[in-house]
Design goal:
By secondary structure, the protein is α+β, with helices and mostly antiparallel strands. The protein contains 15 helices and 17 strands. The strands form 4 sheets. Strands 1, 2, 5, 8 and 10 form a 5-stranded mixed beta sheet that branches. A 5-stranded mixed beta sheet has the order 4-3-6-7-9, with no helix packed on it. The chain has a 5-stranded mixed beta sheet with strand order 15-14-13-16-17, with helices on one face. Strand 11 and strand 12 form a beta hairpin. It starts with 17 loop residues before the first strand and ends in a 12-residue tail after the last helix. The N terminus is likely disordered.
Length: 477
């Protein structure tokens, strides 16, 4: 997977939402001001690879300067949401081609209960917006929705919630009657579709109302989010029915995509062939991680779908799924990356090809990953002549990284810092504040993910490097 990192430092200007000329490489600019608590931290703009997998890809990054300013650049030919993050704080911003946005990134809510390693949603403010700008409309709509249930008293049964939603739908149509923004109209429709999907509205009603006669909107976030919600667990539920019992044989016994498709011929709940294949595609990736299905057989079915589908978008989605699965599988090439050492020198992982590497990611703010770092001290004493130990610090600033090194002098192996421009975290799909990988001399993933020190990786090392005893029995070699 190729991660495009585009960033350029400029001063913040108080002119926002100005249409700009078309640019071949970067046609959306986001000029930001962050709360002083974020000074020196990396701010990242991420986009989604597609709206079936909902995997994110880092598109642009900058470091918040001493005055709190940053700038991000991004290219898109479509209106779409992007995610802007500083550490574990993430906000959504809707952007459209050929625009300059001015935003404010707030401080972390100190009263909120944040679980270590999890993402916290924040509200990003957009400067200079008028009431008809897309982000302003979405904020207004969500405010109205929240107020609807804030005012409601007592227990709300699904039936009562549906009545409230019907009333709110009528009010929303009236409130936004003069708004002609096509994206916002679609946002309204599929927001209500998602609302109704969480109540007692039947699957048949929702399918007929929002899916059956509608075009498949692969590039629309709200439509695809609703579609994912509507069909969540569909394939597994169908497999448990009498007419769907053959699904297990289609996958586990035969690994045959055509046979799998034929299992759905009698299913009347999906009348659209395009939607049916899309649902199968989404279900297959869920099956890959299910203990009820053979991983290699699931992969075989996805590969067949990739070869045989008549829908180019499905071919691309299947390819992305396969790429994500194979990328970090044991035996796959270890993704290379560059990161800075304590002197500021850029170091590449591939510089250590020809040696065993125990690679880990950590944060000085994570108590769990710090405990694992302390255990690596003893591992290195025992195996330093056989294994190269490399750690990558995920802290937001070089200051905290260097302070950590000073306060932990016994951790004297190669400890790198993931700064702006480094793709180490993204290449190894690190979602929390730690991660471990064992890499062989051929730069292949021997264990992925690898056991942590507290989980017994030492036993793996002992087995690998245990000296072989000479055979002393006569006649046997």
């Amino acid at each position: 997977m190729v991660y495009l990192v585009l960033y350029k430092r400029m001063r913040f200007i108080l002119i926002f939402l100005i249409a700009v000329g078309t640019c071949r490489s970067q046609n959306i600019t986001i000029k930001g001001k962050a709360h002083p608590s974020h000074i020196g931290k990396e701010v990242v703009l991420s986009d989604f690879t597609d709206y079936v997998n909902f995997n994110r890809i880092k598109e642009s990054a900058d470091t918040v300067d001493q005055d709190g300013y940053f700038e991000l650049k991004f290219h898109s030919s479509l209106i779409r949401p992007v995610m802007i993050s500083i550490r574990n704080l993430t906000g959504k911003l809707y952007v459209k081609p050929n625009f300059v946005y001015g935003i404010y990134f707030p401080a972390e809510d100190s009263t909120a209960n944040h679980q270590e390693g999890t993402e916290t949603t924040i509200d990003i403010s957009v400067y200079g917006k008028d009431s008809t700008e897309l982000n302003a409309l979405i904020i207004d709509f969500n405010t109205q929705y929240n107020q609807l249930f804030t005012k409601a008293e007592g227990y709300l049964s699904p039936a009562k919630i549906n009545v409230l939603l019907d009333t709110f739908l009528t009010a929303a149509k009236k409130r936004y009657a003069r708004i002609n923004d096509p994206y916002f109209k679609n946002y309204l429709e599929y927001s209500f579709a998602t609302f109704y999907s969480s109540t007692s509205r039947s699957k048949a009603f929702l399918y007929k109302q929002f899916i059956e006669t509608k075009p498949v909107q692969y590039t629309n976030y709200e439509y695809m989010q609703f579609l994912n919600t509507h069909f969540k667990g569909y394939l597994k539920a169908f497999a448990s029915k009498k007419i769907g019992g053959g699904i297990y044989n289609s996958i586990n016994a035969f690994g045959d995509y055509r046979d799998l498709k034929n299992q759905f011929n009698d299913d009347k709940t999906i009348t659209n062939d395009t939607i049916r294949e899309l649902v199968l595609l989404k279900g297959l990736i869920d099956f890959y991680y299910s203990p009820d299905f053979e991983k290699q057989q699931v992969l075989s079915v996805i590969e067949q779908l990739h070869r045989e589908t008549i829908y180019p978008v499905h071919k691309s989605m299947a390819f992305t799924m396969l790429q994500n699965i194979y990328q970090l599988q044991p035996g796959a090439p270890a993704p290379d990356f560059s990161a800075h050492d304590k002197s500021g020198t850029l170091v590449k992982l591939s510089d250590y090809k020809g040696k065993y590497i125990y690679l880990n990611f950590f944060s000085s703010e994570s108590e769990t990953s710090q405990k694992e770092m302390q255990k690596i001290v003893d591992l290195r004493k025992k195996f330093k002549d056989k294994i190269t130990f490399i750690s990558v610090c995920l802290d937001d600033s070089t200051r905290s990284y260097k302070n950590y090194l000073k306060t932990n002098p016994k951790q004297d192996w190669l400890i790198l810092y993931q700064g702006a421009g480094s793709t180490a975290r993204q290449n190894y799909n690190i979602k929390t504040l730690s991660g471990f990988f064992f890499i062989n001399p051929q730069m292949q993933l021997a264990q992925s993910p690898a056991l942590m020190p507290s989980e017994g990786i030492e036993y793996k090392f002992n087995a690998l490097f245990r000296p072989r005893k000479k055979n002393t029995i006569p006649g046997i070699r």
